[in-house]
């Protein structure tokens, strides 16, 4: 598979919760910008218009999926609506969960993306305005998940969350 380019990791101090002292003017501007526009690290207070809304999944899904990252060894089980991020909000709608993405390169946003299984068993993914994007990779072609627009997702697939690659597979029951 061809190497797919992605943006470099943000500098320390870019995210508001970075443990950095003595951040320069550029770091302060970047941090203020990220918080002000509410995209990379701003809190998402209203989940109603997203794939995490309870109206999106009104009954328990019949399928279970896994996301596996070979680089970090992390496996995330998608058995209900799941918010993915570097430090995801603990305040998600009832019936949903939050999962921390292990990201040693720091390219995953706090609330990066969400994956849900709708009431018909269809899998969906949505980007929450992440800084480095969410991508679906099939046959060497990368498709960006547009911010705020749920996109149907089929397994098996490869997902790029920031610069972390995950294999999405359906679990056999």
From TrEMBL:
Pfam families xref list: FHA
Domain FHA: 82-136
Residue ranges crossing the lipid bilayer per the database entry: none
Gene3D superfamilies per the UniProt record, alphabetical: 2.60.200.20
Entry keyword set: Phosphoprotein
UniProt KW tRNA processing keyword: no
Ranges of compositional bias, category Basic and acidic residues: 94-105
PROSITE patterns according to UniProt: FHA_DOMAIN
InterPro entries on file: FHA_dom, SMAD_FHA_dom_sf
Superkingdom in the source lineage: Bacteria
Region (Disordered): 87-109
Protein name: FHA domain-containing protein
């Amino acid at each position: 598979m061809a190497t797919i380019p992605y943006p470099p990791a943000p500098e320390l101090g870019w995210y508001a919760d970075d443990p950095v002292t003595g951040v320069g003017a550029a770091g302060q501007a970047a941090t203020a910008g990220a918080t002000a526009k509410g995209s990379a690290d701003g809190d998402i207070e209203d989940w109603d218009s997203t794939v995490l809304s309870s109206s999106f999944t009104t009954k328990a899904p019949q399928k279970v999926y896994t996301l596996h990252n070979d680089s970090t060894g992390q496996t995330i089980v998608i058995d209900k609506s799941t918010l993915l991020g570097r430090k995801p909000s603990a305040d998600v709608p009832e019936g949903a969960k939050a999962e921390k993405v292990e990201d040693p390169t720091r390219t995953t946003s706090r609330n990066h993306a969400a994956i849900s299984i709708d009431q018909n068993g269809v899998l969906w993914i949505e980007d929450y305005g992440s800084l480095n994007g969410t991508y679906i990779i099939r046959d060497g072609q990368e498709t960006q998940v547009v911010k705020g627009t749920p996109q149907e997702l089929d397994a098996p697939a490869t997902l790029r969350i920031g610069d972390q690659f995950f294999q999405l597979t359906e679990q056999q029951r």
